[in-house]
Amino acid sequence: MNYDIDIKKVRVNCFRQSKVPGEFMLQMRIPGGTINAKYLSDIEYIAVTWGNGTFHMGVRQTFNIPGIKYENIDAVNEYIKDYIKEVEIDECNCDMTINYKGYPTIGARNIMACIGNTHCIKANVNTKELSTKVENLIFPSHYHIKVSVSGCPNDCGKAHFQDFGIIGQARMEYHKERCIGCGACVRACEHHATRVLSLNENGLVDKDPCCCVGCGECVLACPASEWTRLPEKFYRIVIGGRTGKQNPRMGKTFVNFATENTVLGILANWQKFSAWALDYKPEYLHGGHLIDRAGYNKFKEIILDGVELNKEALVAENIYWSETEYRSNINVKPIGMHKSISTTRPIRNSENY
């Protein structure tokens, strides 16, 4: 059968065009990368009934079901109503209406996350819980943004290659009365982290507060519990990362040691910033490009508007992007507004940073 197919319209409902004419792949969102195993039977049913019998674990932690014929898209959308309701509304509390038309937008992409501290001994935070709260702020929206949450500075969730990356951090407390001077924490910091610990002449540990990334390796290594994590959770916010053919780049630190309330306050301003940068006309243009278009200072002004920063938070005064350019420079204007490396100078100092 021949159809006059509006590819952009179908894409809005999370169906991706195949190289086979008239075939599409459904991308089912999994906020935070963790989902109840009961939904696997739904994936199987869709794949066998309307797809080609396979599914792909998408690199953004989605269920990708290929081989769906255009004429079957309405039936698939009808079938996934309950899944969307339970995952997006009941679980993430997103403000949206469920109908037979399937997903309302592909704009705010599926939030990625590592497994976090529900399992991983390295992780400082519960990545699924934070992903659910962020999902409520950004989905649904026709303004595009890619977000990932990593439980610790190992960054298994690839936060550095997102428009907006969030990395779990901890603030550590040193109990010198427990210290046995073994140096395990110093060696762990030297081998796995930023080498800010050293043993002094008294057999106790000194810490250079300049470059601690809040990973918690010292806590894991210590046999005497001389290091403990403070109860409050902190996060590093990284912005402007991206892959791509022309100008891939790694994101730079925007805010260090932000609390959850600070993170959520900033994300709540994302759509406002996107609307301003695009003159209130949504385009398929992701966040890093919008920051380039607006410039870092304007981005910072809008994204921090009304946000009450916690006292520990450090905000970069400026960011200078370092991009890899895979293209000829002949008669081509650079799309990035900032080059070179980012500054580490914060807006204000913070104790024990």
TrEMBL record:
<protein>
    <submittedName>
        <fullName>Sulfite reductase subunit C</fullName>
    </submittedName>
</protein>
<feature type="domain" description="4Fe-4S ferredoxin-type">
    <location>
        <begin position="170"/>
        <end position="199"/>
    </location>
</feature>
<comment type="similarity">
    <text>Belongs to the nitrite and sulfite reductase 4Fe-4S domain family.</text>
</comment>
<dbReference type="InterPro" id="IPR036136">
    <property type="entry name" value="Nit/Sulf_reduc_fer-like_dom_sf"/>
</dbReference>
<keyword id="KW-0560">Oxidoreductase</keyword>
<dbReference type="InterPro" id="IPR017900">
    <property type="entry name" value="4Fe4S_Fe_S_CS"/>
</dbReference>
<dbReference type="InterPro" id="IPR005117">
    <property type="entry name" value="NiRdtase/SiRdtase_haem-b_fer"/>
</dbReference>
<feature type="domain" description="4Fe-4S ferredoxin-type">
    <location>
        <begin position="203"/>
        <end position="233"/>
    </location>
</feature>
<keyword id="KW-0408">Iron</keyword>
<dbReference type="InterPro" id="IPR045169">
    <property type="entry name" value="NO2/SO3_Rdtase_4Fe4S_prot"/>
</dbReference>
<keyword id="KW-0479">Metal-binding</keyword>
<dbReference type="InterPro" id="IPR006066">
    <property type="entry name" value="NO2/SO3_Rdtase_FeS/sirohaem_BS"/>
</dbReference>
<dbReference type="Pfam" id="PF01077">
    <property type="entry name" value="NIR_SIR"/>
</dbReference>
<dbReference type="Pfam" id="PF00037">
    <property type="entry name" value="Fer4"/>
</dbReference>
<keyword id="KW-0004">4Fe-4S</keyword>
<dbReference type="InterPro" id="IPR006067">
    <property type="entry name" value="NO2/SO3_Rdtase_4Fe4S_dom"/>
</dbReference>
<dbReference type="Pfam" id="PF03460">
    <property type="entry name" value="NIR_SIR_ferr"/>
</dbReference>
<dbReference type="InterPro" id="IPR045854">
    <property type="entry name" value="NO2/SO3_Rdtase_4Fe4S_sf"/>
</dbReference>
<keyword id="KW-0349">Heme</keyword>
<dbReference type="InterPro" id="IPR014261">
    <property type="entry name" value="Sulphite_reductase_C"/>
</dbReference>
<dbReference type="InterPro" id="IPR017896">
    <property type="entry name" value="4Fe4S_Fe-S-bd"/>
</dbReference>
<keyword id="KW-0411">Iron-sulfur</keyword>
